[in-house]
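re the bet — no i am not wrong, look at it urself. input seq straight from the record:
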Amino acid sequence: MATAQQLSPQPAIQPHLVNNLEKKPLQIIPIKVGFMGEQGAGKTATAGLLAAALSKQYHGGAPIYVTDPELGWQFLDPVIFQKEGIKLVQLRVPTFAAMLKDLRAGEREGACVWAVELGKIWIEIIRTLQKAKPDSWGMDLRSMWDDFVAQFLNSKLHCLSLGRIQDVIEQVLTESGRVQSVKTGEGMKAGGQKNNFGYEPHLVIRMTLEQKPRVKKGKLFEEEGRMVHRAHIGKDRTWALNGRVFRWCDRPTYPDGTAYHAGDFKYVWNDLAPHFTAVQKTMAFVTLDATATSAELINDDGNSEYYAKRQQREVFSAEIKGCLDLFFAGQGREEKQLRIAVNDLLFNVKSKEAADALPLEKLERGLRILHAYEKIPAKKMDSPQAVLTEMGECIAEYDRGESEEWEIPF
């Protein structure tokens, strides 16, 4: 493990450097960082050290604004910010509306870093919308949160988001044809399951807490040593730190203790600086156009292309079920086995749920084959093999383009 003596300062881009071509001061491009982890994992302390480093090294000790419903940053003020001569403005109103005002206030009043603890704010906006619009709160939530994401990414301040960790669960299709809930990753408890805010920042740090063993007279005492904040870089869009793991709190001095000295933020900064440097090399402040829309995808009835396809899928699925119920509606063991065999022959899956998840063109093909089967005047229903043979003939006929097609609603 590195010690203070072994650490070497990372090359950094200072504000006074000039562009060789234009001979103008180099603009500091803001970084956008997300910290995720359980309670006590070191999110606030690490974010505070990063904020102090940015303020002191690149913005002349400019103020740091923080929207802090968790009420944790005041403990960092005397330990870090007062010793560094940095003004910490701690804003404590735990609402979504107040958070947006805080970000604008920081930009207007000369802050260089804005940080936000997102957990309670995410819960507050959900409860507010559920109470105001019980039947349609989800769409409004998604729209409002997307607007915040755009402000977060477009802000000229360095922006740090902090949030608790949660499992990301997705529905997957198993080999047996069943739909099963599976953990596919981890994300921040803010922004929703499908579009988790933890993935929006350019640098995402997963914090966990470790405890080093204590050794006394050659004997190892587990979980009695110093607490260590472990930082795993889950995503770095610059590729400078992807997959790296850092451990802090094993330094000779550390801000969580009483031995913090001015400049000790370097223990965290030296590890994270390559991301900052890589961002500066882009030489551009890129913003997200939050006003752009996809109005051309909306038809005259006000429905989107996605909505139309969803309707189409629902109609296909209902029609397919109706046809199967008409021909193979028995509840006995043999009838159920025949229905599964027909489903497998038509769609190469054995369950209705798996068939419903197929592409639209496959659903339409299966429905049209069932329509062709329906037109057979005297169906051979005396044995499962006779049914499957006749259904196979309808499939071959359709695939050759020889079957007469019924009109369907789309």
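see?? Residues 1-26, 294-299 have pLDDT under 50 and may be disordered. told u. also Residues 74 and 90 are 7 Å apart (CA to CA). so pay up
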